[in-house]
Amino acid sequence: SHFLLPTVFRVPLRPKTHNTLFAIGLALVAYGLVLTVVPTVWTPFGARFPLPKIGWAGVFAIAIVFDLAAAALAWLVLRRMKVPSFGDAMAPEAQATGVPALKV
Hints:
Oligomer: single chain
Radius of gyration: 24 Å
Shape: flat
Number of strands: 0
Mean pLDDT: 81
Distance between the termini: 40 Å
Order of helices and strands: HHHH
Largest sheet: none
Number of helices: 4
């Protein structure tokens, strides 16, 4: 609701409402992190989080699937972008070597 209301549904939020939603979301994320590290922490429901025994091969297989998905998404986004040209932005001394100078 902190993200969807103002951006997707175009509902204007007052600063107090915005800050309250942000604090609630932050508390939920912190509680999730604590549950991840200390699974014996109290939960308001009968939560059991058994982990599958997939071994290192399964862990790396999952990592490879996520890497391939990220590469596919990056390709879909970046394939239409043009490579930036440094021709005119180069300092005269850098044009001879082809290495762009950093402008500070």
